[in-house]
Structures are given as C-alpha cells and as structure tokens.
Design a protein that fits this description.
The protein is built from six helices and six strands; from the N terminus they run βββαααβββααα. By secondary structure, the protein is of the alpha/beta class. The protein has two domains: about 5-70, no CATH class; about 70-185, Metalloproteases ("zincins"), catalytic domain (Zincin-like, 2-Layer Sandwich), CATH 3.30.2010. Helix 4 packs across helix 6.
C-alpha cells in the first residue's frame, strides 16, 4: 500500500497530488470511507511512480544546473580575462581594417556578444572569456567591421569574411554553445 497524507474537507471529489519531496497527498470528502480512499490511491500506483520519477529527475537536473551556474566571482574573473585578451586582438585587426577604436568596455550583456557605437566605442560580453579563441576573435572582427559598415549588409559580411574566412563556424558556436553560457549566467 502506498503511504499518503490525507486531507479531509467539504469537497465532493477525491484528488491526489505528489509533492515536491515525492510524498503523496490525497484530498477527500470529509465523510468518505477510508477503504474507498485506499482503493483510489491503489488504482493510481502507476501514475504515482511515474510522477515521483519525473520529479526526482527534474530535481537532479535543477541541482546540476545550479552547480553549473556562474558565480559573481566567475563573472569578475571573466571580465578581467577579457580585459587582457582584447588589446592584442584590437591591435591586430583595427589597423588592418583601417579603423580606429574609441572606448572599449567589458560587461555582462544580456543579449549581445558585442556592440559598436557610431563613435567607435566597443562593448564586449565578459562571457566571451569562456569561448574558444577563434570565436572571440570573430566577435572582435565583427564589431570592428561595424566601424566601416554600421549594418549587416552584404558589404559588411564581405568585410567580416575577408578577415575571418571561417566566421560561420563561430556564428554557429555562439548560437549553440553561447546559449549555454548565457543560461549559466542566468540570462536565458
């Protein structure tokens, strides 16, 4: 027999629910015989087992996700890493593209990997510190190309491809693995 907590009230029907801790709770009419309630619970044994398994899996998944979340210390470390990674890439690609750069900022951006203002100020997401070097380099090139083309026209993508012929694999990485990084930061 499955153990359960019985809650009686003025209700007219029986209901059964499995709590987050896996315990069964039955709500029953005040004067319904216990034998009838027991039969009802027994008839739901398969559903109870499936529900308990599902809840246990969801709890395990949530705990694993919580363990994989970035801490504020992780975010600070990534920001510091980015501050050291960006200058060499900017020195390499800005002159080659014939562009100058204004202020460079690293921060946690909720939806973007980078951005470029019309004044030449560049912003980069600190999570890029966790990306492969080729992906970071692509994002730098992408933003620098916006110094020439402030859009995503064919001309813009030709500029990107000229400096980063394999840019499509970086774009694909950001769409899949990058989404995971964003989620670990609590952004998606």
């Amino acid at each position: 027999m499955i153990e359960y907590t019985l809650v009686r009230s003025d209700r007219r029907t029986l209901s059964l629910r499995i709590m987050a801790d896996g315990k069964a709770e039955v709500s029953a009419p005040r004067f319904m015989p216990k034998s009838e309630i027991d039969r009802f619970v027994s008839s739901k044994e398969t559903w109870i087992d499936k529900t308990r398994k599902r809840l246990a899996e969801e709890t395990a998944d949530a705990e694993a996700d919580a363990q994989n979340m970035f801490t504020p210390e992780d975010i600070r470390r990534m920001g510091q890493t980015m501050v050291s990674l960006l200058p060499p890439l900017l020195r390499k690609h800005a002159p080659a593209l014939g562009v100058n750069v204004g202020r460079v900022t690293v921060r946690m951006q909720k939806t973007r990997w980078g951005s470029c203002s019309s004044k030449g100020n560049l912003n980069f997401n600190c999570l890029l510190a966790e990306a492969p070097p080729s992906v970071l380099e692509y994002v730098v090139i992408h933003e620098l190309c916006h110094r020439i083309e402030m859009n995503h026209s064919r001309k813009f993508w030709a500029l990107v491809e000229g400096r980063c012929p394999d840019y499509r694999s970086s774009v694909a990485w950001l769409k899949t693995e990058g989404r995971i990084l964003m989620s670990r930061a609590g952004l998606r």
